[in-house]
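Why do we care about 3D structure at all? Because function follows from shape, and shape follows, mostly, from sequence. That is the central idea of this module. The next example makes it concrete: a single protein chain, its amino acid sequence, and then its structure expressed as tokens.
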Amino acid sequence: MEALSILIPVFNWDCTRLIKDLHFQGLTLGIPYEIIVADDCSTDKDLQQKSRLVAETHENCRYFALPHNIGRAAIRNFMADQSRYDKLLFLDCDAEVKDKQFLKKYMEASGKASVVCGGLTHPDEIPMKGQELRYLYEKNAAFERSAGFRSQNPYLRFTSFSFLIEREVFMKIRFDESYVRYGYEDVQFGHELEENGVSILHIDNPLAHIGLDDSASYLNKTRQAVHNAFDHKEGIGDSSKLLTNYNKVRKLGMRWVFRFIWAFFQKSMERNLLGPKPKLKIFSLYKLCYISVL
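And the structure:
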């Protein structure tokens, strides 16, 4: 009989609503299930306490508070080690369940592939002023969210935001714990899935991504992600558009051009990206310039 472990890594986020919604849906599945919440040493102790109280007062839920921050890759491996069941459903904490059949749809698809990706959606309108960059980036990627589009390049379109995987498969691949900073750990995981011939299925079963960063935080995360991409070039392979473009620039001996742009136009690019009307072309140029100076 199939059984499900739902794994939610948390950092400075109130995921009480997510826990409650998943707990209610789990009760209707008719199979053994558990919800594991692991807090990666949040600095906001009030938010940490909220999630702890809800997790510890709901049946089939377990809560872990890590004594120090171990990062996005290691905490997922930690939760998998704590899991009891044969199917692992990884979900980011800043998600909202929109479909009452969310868990059921995942379980119905679970026998069709070793990995199932449900996808995500973004808010229809910008939640608040100051989030323009992240919102514009998400909105521009909306056409890529459908299962049909993702299925055209199933491994390149893998994301850790929401995915179901056979526990046995995960234990063989796992996330690379050398990823300490934000970003690209899921790109390498998707690459490893392909390298190991693991079957992957994309379905339309999205969670809503409600945790949009303000522009300054997102730009900082972007620089961390670019660092990760640069430091893990070998592991990511050709799975990153940024690295593909960077390699073209490097082979043409053109890095100096982007270093020049960075030296003289970094501040002006950042003024645009942090302003009310950021331009995604400038965002792409910013990332290519930044990786060229590393």
